[in-house]
Structure formats: structure tokens, C-alpha cells
Automatic annotation (TrEMBL), chains A, B:
Pfam families: Hydrolase_6 (PF13344), Hydrolase_like (PF13242). The keyword Magnesium applies. Its cofactor is Mg(2+). GO terms for molecular function: metal ion binding; protein tyrosine phosphatase activity; sn-glycerol 3-phosphatase activity. This is Glycerol-3-phosphate phosphatase. GO terms for cellular component: cytoplasm. Coiled coil: none annotated. NCBIfam families: HAD-SF-IIA, PGP_euk. Divalent metal ions. Mg(2+) is the most effective. Homodimer. It comes from Sus scrofa (Pig). The active site is at 34 (nucleophile), 36 (proton donor).
Length: 321, 321
């Protein structure tokens, strides 16, 4: 089960001992963290995690938080970090460290729809996602429940559409319905209408091993009906890292990505040339690492971190020296 | 654009002239037809199609109707065939010629859940689908709207489940919702609970080039969240042909499959060793055939029919000789 401990050029996924952590941190300016399963689970901080982040800040390291969750604004994340003891800026700068898919989707739409006089999006997602889009000037329609209107297919197709919708944005949407799917596909028949998915996660893990269906399931349904491929914002798509990079001016070689999922966090880090650390407080296990290492599939072989820790609290000894 | 007209061993997709049709029909006992886009579009029969079927019946040919549509019972289809002039048995035998995915899903569940004392299924689908399942003794739960219950993920997961659900059946369900997806995935966490999809069609074509999202979009969402692969009943899955074969005692070499879709009807026919005829009154075009013929992908190369007709009315001259 245990991943390789020995050293050597090709060795991946070694335990990040205090000594190795000291060496790693000496070469690093910026640490990017996933949130759920890394810093906290639900409303409970991972023990020792707030202290580890406080010590990193004290050493002058720059921190960033990259999350695929599209259900919270930057401000809501900043407030949670503060509340659970992870610190970070407050006041008008609160949220500056947060790169969630709601915010990054807004950056993407601003980039792609910048020329449109009144950009408008049909949003399958939360009020928080809509709030981030509205903040960059994109008018949002469709948030909330949308029950079946009319009797039968023809009537469903006759339900009125908003004019000038230039993007369909699919995020986490507990109000997802067949009627919304129908409308999304109708907007997407306009080839110039963008299809954007906040992320492709198949599941959203909760506490105690429970989970609910993730945004990826909803994106796939829309993609299949529309026969279009969505532009994906979240990890492991490079776009979310480009957002951090642009705001932080990052040197990938001096940056670490810390996460609990091989298929999103670690793959993003590997793709973008960052150093990678898997923490075992969340979704992926060392068994998953091993089966990726042994896979004959190139895309899975990439999903192996440089290092692993039982918890990010394991960084503390290296910071207290 | 035109597919090959010349003859030869490897030649596929030739126009079914009256002469070729006469030769073909002489070697054939049974003709299987898709319905929508072949016999009718919406509520309008394809001109000449009822006469062609009447002439085939008069020549003693056995007819069968294979449809992926899960929204109608066998009886409802038989009634539509009669109403639009296609004939067929009435009375207690009405529906005997119809192999729809609602009926065939019922056969599948009877086969797989036969040993269970009180088989029960969670049905994302129509009342007609449920009626076919109930007819073979499967109790159905879940049909109709299912709005979001409770505030937030934990509450959604706490919504009560029915005991002893042994299958999740995904058909065409205009009441599909995130809450239904959540429940489906919870039932499927029991590894013995079957996941059955009536079909994988990405779109359901309506009249005038309009379409709505097909059942496949809903199946994919459930598959992705549950991390399970569904057992698929409809075309191009072999199971639906096995249902016909079992009831009719079919000799594949003396059977023709007539359809308007290369990826379902024609692929089913090729897979099952039937003769295949594409009719151009529905979804697929000769351009689609050509790009399949020229594809370097083996799975697409298979989606080429032996013959094509502009409409099944083209069979008439061969039958009037």
C-alpha cells in the first residue's frame, strides 16, 4: 500500500518528512490549497491545519485557495477561512486569496463576452454563482426552480426564452430539472452561445463518507443533449490556474499545489508544472496513487503527486524549526 | 453525396430499386421497423407508408415494430398504428407486434429480478413505463415530480427511501430533477441494485427539425454520479432484438431492419446479422452514411446499411408487381 519512500530521480509520491518539507519550503514562494478535505471537512477544520497555515503566513509564504465549488462567493469563502481560524485578509481585500469556480467563471465570461454590450447568461447554478457573474457585468437569468411548463414536448419548446443570452453556465444546481435542460439546449442551438461548466466533478463529498451528485453529471447531460463540449473552468482545467497566475504573477517552479484529489488537484498541479502534495484527509488514498502508478494509461500515470502527508498539519514541524 | 450505386461484394448502402426490393423481399420472412421518422413523424403518417405495410402484410410478411421510446405502452403503440392506417392485430392481441423499451425493460426486470418475492423499482420515467413494469409484477415508485426536499445536502440525503428497491430504471422523464438523481444514486449504493436505462438516445426528434433532450442524457447523469454503467435495453443494444427473437423465433438472415438512424436502427441490424435498410424520412442522411464509410473508426464503419430508400413508400412498386 505504501508509496515509494526511497529517493531517486523518477521517484514520486514520497512522504513529506519534516526534513523534506524544510527543503521544499525553502524553494517555494506560493502554496495553493484546495479547501474541502484539505483545510476542513464540512464545518470542522482539520486539526492542526489552521496552525500550519498561520505558520506559513508567518514565514512570508503567499497562500491561495483553489476550489471547484461554485456555490459560494469569494467573500463567503474568506469569511469561512476566518471563522475556522485560517486567517487571511479582511475588509475590502477579503476574498483576494480565493479562486473559486464561481469567481473564475466570471473572469472567463468577462474575457469571452467582453465585447457584448449587455452580456447575459442562462445560469444553472446557485445565487452565489450568479452574484459573481453579475459583479463583472453579466446579467443572469434562470437561477432557482424551473418546473415543467405546459403539456408535452411542443409546449416545453414553446416556453419563452430570454433574448440575447450569450452563454449557458452549468454549475452546481440542486434545482436542475428537465425543463432547465430543455431551455439550456435551446439557447445552445445558437452556435455563438457559449457552454461553460464550472467543473466536472462527478461527486460532491460530504462528511462521513456521504456524497451527492456533482456538477459534472449536470454538465454531461447538457453536453450530450446539445452535442457540444463545455469549456470547463475548474480543476484540472488550466484556466483556473491561469486566473491565479495572472493575479499573483506566479513562478510555477516555486509553487506548490496541495490537494486531496488526484484527478483534480494533483492533475492540475502536474499539468501546470507545480510541485504537488497529496493530503490524505479527503477523497484519494495511497491505494489510488499506487493504482495510478501501475496503470498503463498515460492520463492516469500523470495523477501522481511528488509528496504526500497524512494531513497538512504535518507541515508544522518543518515550520517550527 | 450519393452512396455507391454499383454492385459488388463489399458494396454497402445501395439504393433499393424496385428490382432489388423484389429480390430482397423474396429472401425475407420478417421486417422490423422503427416507428418515429420511418412510419410517421409526430401524428402524421409518412405518405405511402401505410400502403406499403398493408402490401407487406398481404404478401404474408411478418412485421415487428422496435422503438426506443419508453413513454408509451404496447397497447398505446398498437392503437396509434391502427389510427394512422398501418393495421395490425386488435383485441387481446393488440400490441403483440410492438417491442418498445417500456415493454422490453419489463422483460429484462422479470428476468433479472425473477427470484425476488416483491420486486420493486425506482422509476425515473413515465406512467406508461411503470404500467409495463407493473404488468410483470414489478412495483414502481418515484413516477412524477419530485421537488427538492429540505435545506441543503444533508437534508436531501435524509429524505426517506422506499425499502427493498432492487432496480433503478431510467427512461424518458420530463420530471427529472436533482432530487431524483440524488435518490437514484442512494438506491444504487446498494451494489445489488440494478441500474437499467431504456435507451441512450441523446435527442428525441420532434417535427420540423425540433428536438428535446433524450433519455441518454439522463442515464449519463445517473451513471456518472453512481459510478456505475447502466444495462441498456433499447437499440443498438442486442437485448431488444433478443426480445423480438424470442417471441417471433427469428432467422436473422431472413429478417430486415428498417430505420432512420444509423447509430441505433442500422447498428442494431448490423450487430444482429440482419439485412438493413435506411430510410431518409428521419434523422440520418446519405452524408452521414458517407462519413461513416470514410471513417477510420471501426465502430462507425459498422453503421452503414445494406440499402437505402427515400421513404418506405419506395417498397410499393416491388409489392405491386
Amino acid at each position: 500500500m505504501a508509496a515509494t519512500e526511497a529517493s531517486g530521480d523518477d521517484v514520486r509520491c514520497v512522504r513529506l518528512s519534516a526534513e523534506r518539507a524544510r527543503t521544499l519550503l525553502a524553494d517555494v514562494d506560493t502554496l495553493l490549497f484546495d479547501c474541502d478535505g484539505v483545510l476542513w471537512r464540512g464545518e470542522t477544520a482539520v486539526p492542526g491545519a489552521p496552525e500550519a497555515l498561520t505558520a506559513l503566513r508567518a514565514r512570508g509564504k503567499r497562500l491561495g485557495f483553489i476550489t471547484n465549488n461554485s456555490s459560494k462567493t469569494r467573500e463567503a469563502y474568506a469569511e469561512k477561512l476566518q471563522r475556522l481560524g485560517f486567517g487571511g485578509p479582511s475588509g475590502p481585500n477579503a476574498g483576494r486569496e480565493i479562486f473559486g469556480t464561481a469567481y473564475c467563471t466570471a473572469l472567463y465570461l468577462r474575457q469571452r463576452l467582453g465585447g457584448a454590450p449587455t452580456p447575459k447568461a442562462y445560469v444553472l447554478g446557485s445565487a452565489a454563482l450568479a452574484a459573481e457573474l453579475e459583479a463583472v457585468g453579466v446579467t443572469c437569468v434562470g437561477v432557482g426552480p424551473e418546473p415543467l411548463q405546459g403539456e408535452g414536448p411542443s409546449a416545453w419548446l414553446d416556453a419563452p426564452l430570454e433574448p440575447d443570452v450569450r452563454a449557458v453556465v452549468v454549475g452546481f444546481d440542486p434545482h436542475f430539472s428537465y425543463m432547465k435542460l430543455t431551455k439550456a439546449v435551446r439557447y445552445l442551438q445558437q452556435p455563438s452561445c457559449l457552454l461553460v461548466g464550472t467543473n466536472m466533478d462527478n461527486r460532491l463529498p460530504l462528511e462521513n463518507g456521504r456524497f451527492i451528485a456533482g456538477t459534472g453529471c449536470l454538465v454531461r447531460a447538457v453536453e450530450m443533449a446539445a452535442q457540444r463540449q463545455a469549456d470547463i473552468i475548474g480543476k484540472p482545467s488550466r484556466f483556473i490556474f491561469d486566473c491565479v497566475s495572472q493575479e499573483y504573477g506566479i513562478n510555477p517552479e516555486r509553487t506548490v499545489m496541495v490537494g486531496d484529489r488526484l484527478d483534480t488537484d494533483i492533475l492540475l498541479g502536474v499539468t501546470c508544472g507545480l510541485k504537488t502534495v497529496l493530503t490524505l484527509t479527503g477523497v484519494s488514498t495511497l491505494g489510488d496513487v499506487k493504482s495510478n502508478q501501475e496503470s498503463d494509461c498515460m492520463s492516469r500515470k500523470k495523477m501522481v503527486p511528488d509528496f504526500y502527508v497524512d494531513s497538512i498539519a504535518d507541515l508544522l514541524p518543518a515550520l517550527q524549526g
